[in-house]
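User: Hi! Is it possible to get a structure for several chains at once, not just one? Here's what I have:
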Amino acid sequence: MIWVTWRQHRAQILVTAAFLALLGMLLLGSAVEAIRYMSEHAPPGCPGPAVACGDLAAALGRRYDAVYSVFGWMPLVAPALIGAFWGAPLLGREYERGTHRLAWTQSVPVGRWLAVKLSILGAAVVAGGLLLSLMVSLWRPVFRSGADSTFGNIGVFNMVGVDPAAWWLYAFALGTAAGTLFRRTLPAMALVVAGVAVTMFTLFRLSDYYAEPARTELSGSVVLDDQDARLVSAAWVEPSGREVADPSDSGCPRRVDAGQSNRNTEAWQACLFGKGYRYAVYYHPPARFWRFQWTEAGILTLASAALGGLAVRSTLRRPG
Amino acid sequence: MSAALEATGLGVRYRRTWVLRDCSLSLPTGRVAALVGPNGAGKTTLMHAAVGLLRPALGSVRVAGEAAFVAQDKPLYESFTVAEMLAFGRRMNRRWDDAAAADRLAALGIPLRRKVGRLSGGQQAQVAVTLALAGLPDLLMLDEPLANLDPLARHDVMRSIMAEVAERRLTVLLSSHVVSDLEETCDWLVVLNAGRLQVSGDIEELLDGHLVVTGPDDAPIAGAQVVSASRTGRQVGMLVRGAPPLDPRWQARSPGLEELVMGYLRSPDSAALPKLTGVGA
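Assistant: Yes, the chains can be modeled jointly so their relative placement is included. Here is the combined structure:
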């Protein structure tokens, strides 16, 4: 059965492995080059927060952005591809070609056939996702020591930790279930792409509620100094302590800004702070990284189990 | 006489339509059985139920020992080589005779390293049959094994199967809607019509037990059990079971297999089922 699984799905396995290897080489090359650049060009004490380090940080930033633009689309596209090429054909193609009537009439029972395929391919998908996460996690700190954004940037957040594995597994299960639903590969692929996009959007919206947001009151600035935090909402606090969405009766003149300038808004904010207003920010601090990772991974894993169960059930119940 | 395949009160439906109703059937071991009936009679459904590809709504169907099945379009993995198809069979079956399969393919001149998708239709059918036989089944079921094959390939496929039957105790059930395909090779007949079982029995006994009689349409038919009748002008041709009508104007002769099958298919209410399997039919 293991050989059969390998033989039928080796194209997907090999292409995915080759892609990960290629990405790994790209990241390794980029990191090595960046480290060499730093050792040659970094002033003493850099990289760090010192002013002298600005040029170095900018140079590293350019390098980072160049490579990131190559695989920045991965949090969305990689799961979609996994679902479309690993999940959708698993059962969809068998039905489409009628080969399920060959595969399911051998001595090996249908249940075992499916269990072996789902567990081997599912494990491979999880391993692939974890490998991606590991590579990205090793590569990023070379450029971003001190100013990390693995939490606040949702794109990066979905590429590190356990989330890539959970996303890949979810897409695989979604594709498999879609394959039994349509009994065709192509519509199942389309459903996977749409499903992954919708799920990602939904979870992005939902992630604000993974935990009770932290609250802090700012005076003098409306910008949270922790750049990696996830902003949930904000409001003005009157001197009396009451929170208002829009401080209209403050007496501060608010003029409309023209073009790119936000001079008028800043003046209005300064006026408010001068009158004793404070700015309340609700946010998730970066310390919640793992809590959010596991919450999202948990949701996706549960969904994968449900979809996998659905695929197993419909395969065992009404084959033919 | 033990049964290689036994169905009891088998009923299968797709959504609200019954495609197989109250089907009770016992196929003796060692027979080569022809499963015939018009398109949509339920032949494929009966086979799918027997190999577990679908679950019956009512009753049960049981195969004694290992069953091998070749589906109608003879599905194979087209991207596999012939050798890989054999490896697939070896790994998916408890029993497997690799040497016999390789020998058979060599004798047929089918190269092991060729991709299945690049074989001719006849060769693909041979690979599918070879795979089924290599699992050393007790019952081999073939759904329309000869459809889409040219006459030469038909002959070759049938010869492969019959050679295996001659060698060991193998029961074969093969379906077709063309009776003449099966006339020379089969010794048991099963007729399905509109989801109901009409005939199940030894072909020789069935032929011996029926007569085709012709006579004027005003001749009395007393004494005969008429299966079906057809009129041409003032003449009537009838398929009767058992003795011919008493009136001497009737002329009787033995039916051919095709006449027998057609006679039953024309009158779906007639049935020729042994008592053993006729329960409830």
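Confidence is low (pLDDT under 50) at residues 276-281 of chain B. Residues 204-266 of chain B form one domain.

User: Great, thank you!
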